[in-house]
Design brief:
- This protein has about 400 residues and is mostly helical.
- The protein folds into 2 domains: about 45 residues; about 240 residues, Up-down Bundle (Receptor-associated Protein), CATH 1.20.81.30.
- Helices cover about 75% and strands about 5% of the residues.
- It contains 15 helices and 3 strands.
- A 3-stranded antiparallel beta sheet has the order 2-1-3.
- A hairpin with a 5-residue loop joins strand 1 and strand 2.
- Helix 10 runs antiparallel to helix 11.
- It is extended.
């Protein structure tokens, strides 16, 4: 099916409305509008932007705002179609507006909200869709949307903190590269010319630096091509191949300093998602399966998935998670307490809260931990360049004097 933007009049009131409708052809879209009680004015196929469909440009902030607004409007008692139309009119994001109008068109044509949302899997993930389905079925859609908004805000804040912790190291690396490039381009060639003018032989370290400087001076274009091929190859390997994805995901779990952070992130995601699913009435097996997918790490997913088979065999969640690789001990312990008290969702939420708090503290300490390491690396590299440039100059001046 294709998406068609339309403008139409309501037969009964004459009110002009617009939106997006799904149909195989433009004529089919027009007929569908007539069946729904509209008089079509314009029906045009929804085009693609310069970089793809509108869904590719929906940010997490757009989705959070949409979810929060929908929860508020539905919780206030407004009909679903009215809520969607109101949000579509208020949203500032053109991409999100297009998607909401499409969802509205589907809902008005008789489709369920879950089916309408599921047409955009790149925007609404499995967790989102499962909660929408559960909320729609149980009549607690506003509660499900509110939970979604809360969780997405927490996820966005956590990822923002992680990116923020990486900004300082990135700046230091850029400074290191900039200083080295300046020394190699501006200083090293002058040292070479000075020695040649005086008929002196270059010291070994200086000769090595001069060789590097000459190579980059003559073959900079080749260096850029090779770097581009390496970056492109790594990107393709990681993003487009299953093996590359596994290698990257395994690296995240074992990289120094960050490995423990990523493990806590995945465990907290699993526990928090399982809590939301169970609290909304999603069955245990489905809740665990969706929680596993929410980790977004293939290595962790493969390990956690073994717990599903144990649960299918009749064992409780706490037992299925014990001694599982990449699973931290507090989660099965809290799950066991929840199973005994009948509050497993609440206990999983508390476990998630503990690890989220530890993540906050660990993220705040990352810059402090990395700073001395980067300073040592920068001092070492710049020391080599200075040793190969300034010290030979000082030696020449001393000999002349």
């Amino acid at each position: 099916m294709r998406s068609y933007k339309y403008k139409a009049k309501e037969k009964t009131t004459g009110k002009m409305v617009k939106g997006v409708i799904q149909a195989d052809t433009e004529q089919a879209a027009g007929r569908l509008l007539v069946e729904q009680g509209f008089i079509p004015q314009t029906v045009t196929e929804e085009g693609k932007g310069l970089f793809g469909d509108a869904k590719d440009h929906v940010t997490s902030k757009d989705r959070i705002t949409f979810t929060r607004q929908m929860a508020t409007l539905i919780g206030a008692g407004l009909p679903l179609a009215t809520s969607l139309r109101t949000v579509a009119e208020q949203t500032q994001s053109k991409a999100m507006k297009t998607i909401v109008e499409s969802i509205l068109g589907n809902v008005e044509s008789g489709r369920t909200l879950y089916d309408s949302f599921s047409k955009y899997p790149d925007v609404f993930n499995g967790v989102y869709l499962a909660l929408i389905k559960a909320g729609e079925t149980s009549g607690t859609l506003d509660m499900a949307l509110r939970r979604l908004a809360d969780q997405e805000e927490k996820d966005a804040a956590m990822m923002s903190k992680i990116r923020g912790a990486l900004v300082y190291p990135a700046i230091i690396l850029v400074v290191i590269i900039g200083v080295l490039a300046f020394m190699m381009i501006m200083v090293v060639p002058q040292v070479k010319g000075l020695y040649e003018d005086m008929g002196k032989q270059l010291p070994g370290l200086t000769k090595f630096l001069v060789g590097i400087s000459d190579f980059f001076g003559q073959f900079w274009w080749l260096v850029l091509i090779v770097l581009g091929m390496i970056v492109g190859g790594v990107y393709y390997f990681v993003k487009r191949t299953s093996t590359g994805r596994k290698v990257a995901d395994s690296f995240k779990l074992h990289v120094p300093l960050f490995g423990a952070l990523f493990r806590k992130l995945y465990v907290s995601r699993f526990a928090r998602t399982a809590e939301m699913m169970l609290a909304t009435g999603v069955p245990m097996l489905d809740s665990v399966a969706i929680a596993i997918d929410s980790t977004s790490n293939t290595v962790v997913e493969a390990e956690y998935s073994k717990a599903l088979e144990i649960i299918k065999g009749g064992k409780p969640l706490s037992e299925s998670l014990k001694d599982r690789d990449y699973m931290l001990p507090l989660v099965p312990q809290m799950a066991s307490i929840g199973e005994e008290s009948g509050k497993i969702d609440e206990m999983l939420g508390k476990a998630a809260q503990v690890y989220e708090s530890e993540l906050d503290e660990q993220i705040n300490n990352i810059s402090t931990m990395i700073e001395p390491i980067l300073m040592v690396i920068m001092a070492g590299l710049i020391g080599v360049v200075i040793g190969g440039t300034l010290l030979p100059i000082y030696s020449l001046v001393s000999n002349v004097a």
